[in-house]
Specification:
Blueprint: E1 43-47, H1 58-62, H2 69-80, E2 83-86, H3 93-107, E3 112-117, H4 120-131, E4 139-142, H5 154-160, E5 166-170, H6 171-179, E6 188-194, H7 204-217, E7 224-229, H8 239-248, E8 251-253, H9 259-265, E9 270-276, H10 286-296, H11 304-311, H12 315-327, H13 331-350, H14 352-372, H15 382-393, H16 413-423, E10 431-434, H17 438-450, H18 452-455, E11 460-463, H19 485-493, E12 498-501, E13 516-519, H20 526-533, E14 542-548, H21 553-584, E15 593-595, E16 600-602, H22 607-616, E17 629-635, E18 644-650, E19 661-663, H23 671-688, H24 699-702, E20 713-717, H25 723-732, E21 735-745, E22 748-757, E23 767-772, E24 775-781, E25 786-789, H26 798-806, E26 820-822, E27 836-837, E28 847-850, E29 856-863, E30 872-875, E31 888-893, E32 914-919, E33 924-929, H27 930-959, H28 968-974, H29 987-1008, H30 1014-1025, H31 1027-1036, H32 1058-1063, E34 1070-1074, H33 1075-1105, H34 1114-1123, H35 1136-1142, H36 1149-1155, H37 1172-1190, H38 1199-1210, H39 1212-1221, E35 1223-1231, E36 1238-1246, H40 1256-1282, H41 1288-1294, H42 1298-1315, H43 1318-1328, H44 1330-1339, ...
Parallel strand pairs: 1-37, 2-7, 2-8, 3-5, 3-6, 4-5, 6-7, 9-14, 10-12, 10-13, 11-12, 13-14, 30-32
Antiparallel strand pairs: 15-16, 17-18, 18-19, 20-34, 21-22, 21-24, 21-25, 22-26, 23-24, 27-33, 28-29, 28-33, 29-31, 31-32, 35-36, 37-38, 38-39
Helix pairs in contact: 2-3, 6-7, 10-13, 10-14, 13-14, 14-15, 22-23, 26-27, 27-28, 28-33, 29-30, 29-33, 29-34, 29-37, 31-33, 36-42, 37-38, 37-42, 38-44, 39-42, 41-46, 42-43, 45-46
């Protein structure tokens, strides 16, 4: 399963169980932070195409319900009148109910919604489904297990229902509550009848509706009714529909549109009758005869029931006694009779072995459990158990021989036929076998699990209908002691692939879609057949009926199949009628939509497909189906007797509210043309709103003129330098500006000179001079300057000073220098170099010593003779042959470097006393003190510092004049790349500016485009902040001329003579710069502006650099956003805890509601509220809060450190985890089943549960994330609190969907819009735990590198590469994702249990890194010991 292509990442299927949340294009915080480390080895990922890891119910796949169009249609019909939704099993009826519940929660805040289902198991299932989609609204499941029969006080019911919005129960519970007036009909706003076809005759549902009709006829408040059914008739009689309609005061409705979509969801199986040959008479087994004898010999006079009635001779008991004796009817006799009947039925259906096994297991189970007095038979009286025990002990039973030794006579022909059918099924079969008796379930499961040919292919489970009511009396023949819900769950997940069930699996129970249903017993009626047929929902499914040859069942079922085929043919006939109606629509000559500027044209027939394409492009969000859907309306009274049709197309909630629903302009005979018309009108409205371009394409298709591609380098202007213009000014201007330059060693002044320029002379900040490894000096510029004239200047000493320092290396001319230097002393050109003999009187450490070649040295001491080689490191070649007994000088060589701005790497230390020695006869001494030569040595560095500072000053005073920067040093930092090796570089400012640009661009596009969906806003912002755009801006604004990229080395430095500049032409030249550097400069200047003047100055900077964008300061933008939402001052009651949690009270409650509304909520309503735009805004605000926390940290953090820390603080995995931890408290009342007292508790409600949505897919991934969070949270919390490493792998394994983090970002956006305060938003970031964890990352120096980075950097030191191979393996039908990690050719580790490829690679990288780390530490320990 490995990909054959190394180095290629194979595209992954878009499946929720292996989905990696798609990160936003601009949001690096949501991406996996790989490749940050400079030494990271190249990583190669080989990813095989991967199927879902978690087995997903195909039905659930098909009904990943963003509310399909036909469901929305049924929902909207339910808003207009009471209806019974009649749709096939598997079509998603429950989702219609969920949509209606959500709508009712919005509309009605003080009444209860009651959901009714016929069985406890179905109640439990529907409770889970509804709870997963209604957020924080309180919902309760009420069943017999709550001892509700004993709730005889209104107080108990009122306490239980306090603050409850939804109750799920069986029909009987609500009927009893209404009957006893514990619950008033008027207290309910909606009753939902699941499996509504049962509501006939004396069914509790019918009785509830009797109370409903009384309430309605009295003019009192009454609830709405919604019925759900797949089979509105119980028998083969169409009149049953009218009866159910009358009972429920509702109209039976099925979808009338999108019929093809509905039929594509519901896969009807083929009917396959299989005739079972007559088994002949199988002799009853010995234990059956014994059981029959024991039953016949029961002495009723000794029956405990009879004895009890005789002892308590009341009138009532005497009546019961007479009846019992007449009918031989006592509990024990009933049990024995039922037991005997079941054994006969099992013998007939399965064979002798099965009957013997059943009797043996049932008897031994009863004797064992009755003797132990366990809870299984605790509802039986002691006397009854003892009496029955004595009876059963008389039955001779024996353990049957192992079933794998059975013969043809041991089993029935029906069983043999079943086995043959199972053996002939395809490998991917998922099968449900329906049987009649619960006892048959356990026995059949035992038999099939023992046959090798079956058990090798099928993993068998069981499901029977049992009440959870504790007081239910158990039957003697019940072999299932435990709940089989576990088997149902295993069948759902694929661990089991064969389920043996009673009729309980027919109705509503969410048994996953399978491809084979076998009816071991004939379905009793049409309803049962339809329900069973609906279990086989997959393509090419089959339903098998095992029929006895002697019966007439085949004919009846074939008639039923013919009836179904006629229904299918009716569908086809309806399709032909639709085609005929379409032919009547002859007026199709509708003018197309034309755009003159481009020639683009869209006609009537194209509109529908183009509208579909547009809607898919609107957003990148998951879990939402953005397809438009159409609702038709019939218009009668058109003259020819044929109704006309108009249609309304419903568009995604990402679009502006005023074009969310668009109606067709004309009236049509056919729905098809009505839909085309509606689509055409909608597309024209969208074009008018500016949401498609003049080529009639979505704006995302051209990406707003495209985020243009860029090469890695551009040819740009060479670096601007000030010297040519200054050289000209020396002759043009008479004014001179003077500042004092001071070279200092600490507080000691080494040298002081007056520096003059014929122009603006800025004050340079002090800078360091690195003379040698042990001496660091400082150059300072005077605070004040003097103005003088050209004639007042003294002679320029620059050439003389440079000659003192460098004249021995290259020629220095006595010409005017670009920087005029002078001192109080006379320093003449070449008048002081080596002018004195090195006599004893002339030797002074303050004067420079020169050798015979004029090289300068610094005097250390006079030596009486030539030092030995043990004392001196170096003696010049010219002095090797000099006499040893003459005086020598110990000297220190003059530095060869002309760059004194960078630290000197310490040379290898020598233990010799003197660095160098010269014969005294070779030496001369300068006639000016060494400070002049030292200052001359520093001049190249001073000139360079003047040059870059004047460059920054030129940029500040000219290009950036409108921004009004005051700090030139800040500008200098902003234009200095790391390659320039200056004292500072722009990387920190660029990091800050990136965050500022992000929030200002976000605000800009949101103000400029109030109707744009989030997808368009993201593209628009990406267009503004893209590196290609910033790079182009940098060149267009002339910033390229000011970017410093070359490090000063001084190697080629020569004096800057004025005449050289005046005599040469200024020929423009070019240089190549990285496009990233060009883009970074924009962001670094924005960051500099923010440092100097906050957001206002950043806005001013952007308005200058990018004037084509409409920029807004945050203080101006916020009122605009605030005014766009109508004021809502009342908060929904169940949202009130949120304001307490975040410690902020909204002025306009609509912003809080909007921040909690998933986009799927608007798919079936006209609301324009959804969290997308606020999340888009909040993302940038959250980013800014984190950056503002990192920026001032001391010691200063590098750009790389801040990047990693920001990534660690706001990645979707951490935000999602914290959202699951962040909880409100909710008061919950419970009724004790023992003493019926009310207990009040407080449960935690996670913040994420307040998100409202209308997507079962969202609910499913929420449920999965919640389960995984519950099992793994402690380890993550411990890591956050104590670990020295960031828990990347643990967080990734949670696989929390991105909408969890989106919800928090939308909350931040909402709070900022409502309050206008970044500080309040910061408080919320503090409360959820982001900032506390960030502070611990900083204080405890937590390693926040991603495991891939850690591993890559570790092996990169050895020039090795990392390779990841992922693979899906299937064992016992369960898929598991594995990852192998190779370093070079070595397999380092393999890990399994992956959720998705990115997560498993992270987990594997973490394991490999720590394994190699331990290996390295062990090696170090061995070397230390050795």
């Amino acid at each position: 399963m490995h990909s054959p292509m190394e180095g290629v990442v194979t595209p992954m299927p878009d499946d929720e169980s292996l989905s990696s949340e798609a990160s936003e294009l601009d949001d690096e915080a949501h991406a996996t932070p790989t490749g940050v480390g400079e030494n990271a080895a190249q990583e190669i990922s080989t990813i095989s195409p991967i199927d879902p890891i978690d087995p997903v119910d195909p039905l659930e796949e098909q009904t990943v319900i963003h509310a399909r169009a036909y469901q929305v249609e049924m929902f909207e019909k339910s808003l207009k009148q009471n209806i019974i939704v009649a749709m096939d099993t598997g079509s998603g009826k429950t989702q219609v109910a969920v949509l209606r519940i959500q709508a009712e929660l919005e509309k009605c805040s003080d009444k209860i919604i009651w959901f009714l289902a016929p069985t406890v198991a179905l109640c439990e299932q529907q409770f889970r489904v509804i709870k997963s989609q209604i957020g924080a609204a309180q919902i309760k499941l009420l069943s017999g297990a709550d001892n509700v029969d004993a709730w005889s006080d209104t107080r108990i019911w009122d306490d239980y229902l306090k603050d409850v919005r939804i109750v799920v129960s069986t029909y009987q519970i609500l009927l009893d509550a209404i009957t006893h007036a514990f619950v008033q009909i008027g207290r309910l706003c909606l009753i939902i009848f699941d499996e509504a076809h049962n509501c006939v005759g004396n069914h509790p549902g019918s009785k509830i509706m009797e109370r409903y009709r009384i309430q309605k006829s009295n003019g009192a408040p009454y609830p709405a009714i919604l019925g759900l059914t797949a089979s509105p008739i119980m028998r083969s009689n169409i009149d049953g529909i009218e009866k159910i309609e009358q009972t429920l005061d509702a109209v039976c409705k099925a979808p009338t549109i999108h019929r093809e979509e509905l039929l594509s969801i519901v896969k009807r199986p083929t009917l396959s009758p299989v005739f079972v040959p007559d088994s002949g008479d199988r002799l009853p087994v010995h234990s059956m005869a014994g059981l029959a004898k024991a039953f016949r010999c029961l002495n009723i006079s000794q029956d405990p029931y009879i004895l009890r009635l005789q002892s308590e001779r009341t009138e009532r008991n005497l009546y019961k006694l007479r009846k019992a004796l007449e009918k031989r009817d006592t509990p024990v006799i009933k049990q024995m009779q039922s037991f005997h009947r079941k054994s006969i039925e099992i013998h007939r259906q399965l064979g002798p072995w099965a009957a013997e096994y059943f009797i043996y297991k049932a008897v031994t189970q009863f004797l064992s459990l009755a003797e132990q007095d366990l809870t299984w038979f605790e509802t039986w009286g002691t006397a009854e158990k003892q009496y029955l025990r004595n009876v059963l002990q008389q039955v001779e039973i024996k353990l049957p021989r192992p079933f794998n030794e059975f013969t043809i006579l041991d089993v029935s022909d029906k069983f043999n036929t079943l086995v043959q059918e199972l053996q002939s099924t395809p490998d991917n079969t998922r099968c449900i076998i329906f049987v009649l008796e619960t006892a048959t379930v356990a026995v059949l499961a035992q038999m099939l699990s023992t046959i090798t040919s079956v058990s090798s292919r099928f993993r068998v489970g069981t499901m029977i209908g049992t009440s959870s009511f504790a007081a239910r009396k158990r039957d003697l023949g019940e072999l299932n002691q435990t709940s089989d819900h576990g088997d149902l769950e295993d069948f759902r997940t694929g661990k089991l692939n064969l389920l043996i069930a009673t009729s309980v699996a027919e109705e509503g129970i969410d048994v996953p879609a399978c491809n084979l249903v076998i009816c071991f017993n004939t379905p009793p009626n049409v309803k049962s057949f339809i329900q069973r047929r609906g279990r086989a929902r997959m393509e090419n499914s089959k339903i098998i009926l095992l029929l006895e040859e002697s019966s007439d069942q085949y004919d009846s079922w074939m008639a039923l199949e013919d009836m179904m085929k006629r229904c299918y043919e009716d569908d086809m006939r309806a399709a032909r009628e639709v085609a005929e109606l379409e032919a009547l629509d002859i007026n199709l000559d509708i003018a197309p939509l034309r755009v003159p500027s481009t020639g683009a044209q869209l006609d009537f027939d194209q509109a529908k497909s183009h509208l579909e394409h547009l809607c898919r492009k609107l957003t990148s969000k998951q879990y939402v189906d953005h397809s438009p859907y159409y609702i038709p309306e019939q218009i009668h009274g058109c003259g020819d007797g044929i109704p006309r049709i108009s249609a309304v197309v419903h568009l995604p909630p990402s679009l502006p509210q005023d074009i969310r629903r668009v109606k067709s302009r004309g009236l049509w005979y056919s729905e098809k043309n009505a839909f085309k018309d509606a689509a055409f009108q909608a597309f024209k409205a969208i074009y008018k709103a500016g949401l498609v371009n003049d080529n009639l394409m979505p704006l995302t298709d051209d990406t707003f003129e495209s985020v243009e591609a860029r090469s890695s380098v551009w040819e740009v202007d060479t670096l601007w330098k000030p010297w040519r213009r200054i050289a000209q000014l020396w002759g043009e201007s008479n004014e001179r500006v003077q500042r004092e330059l001071c070279l200092k060693d600490g507080d000691r002044v080494i040298a002081r000179f007056e520096a003059s320029l014929p122009c603006h002379f800025p004050k340079l900040p002090s800078f360091k001079i690195y003379w040698d490894p042990t001496h660091t000096w400082t150059v300072e510029t005077s605070e004040h300057y003097n103005l003088t004239t050209a004639s007042a200047l003294k002679a320029d000493q620059s050439a003389a000073l440079i000659d003192l320092a460098y004249g021995h290396r290259w020629e220095v001319k006595d010409l005017a220098h670009i920087l005029h230097l002078q001192s109080t002393e006379d320093v003449a050109f070449r008048q002081h170099i080596g002018q004195r003999a090195a006599t004893d009187g002339a030797l002074d450490p303050e004067f420079v010593i020169r050798n015979i070649k004029g090289k300068p040295h610094l005097f250390i001491e006079r030596l009486p003779s030539k030092p030995s080689l043990d004392l001196v490191q170096n003696i010049e070649k010219d002095a090797w042959n000099e006499p040893e007994d003459v005086p020598w000088l110990a000297v220190r060589p003059w530095p060869r470097r002309q760059d004194l701005l960078h630290r000197v790497i310490d040379p290898p230390r020598s233990d010799k006393r003197y660095p160098r020695a010269l014969p005294l006869s070779h030496c001369t001494v300068d006639t000016v003190d060494r400070s002049k030569a030292l200052f001359g040595c520093v001049i190249p560095s001073i000139i360079h510092m003047f040059e870059i500072y004047l460059t920054a000053e030129e940029l500040r005073r000219n290009v950036l004049e409108e921004v009004n920067f005051s700090d030139t040093s800040l500008i200098l930092t902003a234009i200095s790349s790391r390659a320039a090796s200056g004292a500072t570089d722009y990387e920190r400012l660029e990091f800050l500016g990136d965050s500022v640009l992000k929030i200002l661009a976000t605000v800009s596009v949101m103000i400029q485009h109030p109707n744009y969906p989030e997808g368009y806003l993201t593209e628009k912002k990406n267009r503004i902040v893209s590196n290609s755009r910033l790079c182009r801006t940098s060149v267009d604004r002339g910033l390229d001329k000011f970017i410093l990229t070359k490090s000063f080395t001084g190697a080629k430095w020569r004096p800057l003579y004025i005449e050289n500049f005046l005599s040469s032409e200024d020929t423009p030249t070019k240089r190549e710069l990285s496009t990233k550097t060009l883009a970074d400069i924009i962001e670094s200047l924005i960051g500099a502006a923010y440092v100097e003047g906050g957001m206002l100055k950043s806005v001013a900077c952007l308005r200058l650099l990018m004037p084509d964008v409409e920029w807004h300061d945050l203080s101006d933008a916020r009122p605009i956003f605030f005014s766009r939402r109508d004021m809502v001052t009342k908060l929904r009651p169940y949202y009130e805890p949120l304001e307490q949690l975040i410690d902020y009270t909204f002025q306009n409650k609509a912003f809080l509601t909007e921040s909690l509304t998933h986009i799927s909520w608007g798919m079936s309503s006209s609301t324009d509220m959804c969290m997308e735009r606020l999340e888009f805004l909040g993302d940038s605000i959250l980013d800014g809060i984190i950056v503002s926390t990192l920026w001032p940290h001391k010691p200063e953090l590098t750009n790389s450190q801040m990047h990693l820390l920001r990534m660690s603080s706001v990645n979707a995995d951490l935000l999602g985890f914290l959202m699951m931890e962040w909880c409100t408290t909710q008061e919950v009342t419970e009724i004790s089943p023992v003493d019926l007292t009310t207990t009040t508790s407080h449960k935690k409600v996670p913040f994420w549960k307040y998100m409202v949505h209308k997507s079962s897919h969202v609910a499913r991934v929420q449920r999965t994330a919640e389960e995984r969070h519950a099992s793994e949270r402690e380890a993550i919390l411990d890591a956050i609190a104590h670990s020295t490493e960031y828990p990347w792998a643990k967080l990734a394994h949670l696989d929390i969907p991105k909408f969890f983090s989106d919800m928090f970002e939308s909350l931040i956006g909402a709070v900022w819009v409502d309050s206008g305060s970044i500080e309040i938003c910061q408080g919320i970031v503090e409360r959820i735990g982001i900032l506390p964890y960030l502070r611990r990352m900083l204080s405890d120096n937590i390693d926040v590198r991603h495991p891939k980075n850690q591993l890559g950097e570790m092996v990169g030191k050895d020039d090795k590469r990392v390779k990841y191979e992922t693979e899906v393996r299937i064992e016992a039908g369960v898929k598991e994702l594995f990852c192998r990690v190779f370093v070079g050719d070595e397999l380092v580790t393999e890990v399994g249990g992956g959720i998705n490829p990115e997560e498993i690679c992270t987990k594997a990288a973490d394991a490999a890194y720590h394994l190699l780390l331990r290996r390295a530490n062990n090696l170090d320990d061995e070397m230390t010991i050795g």
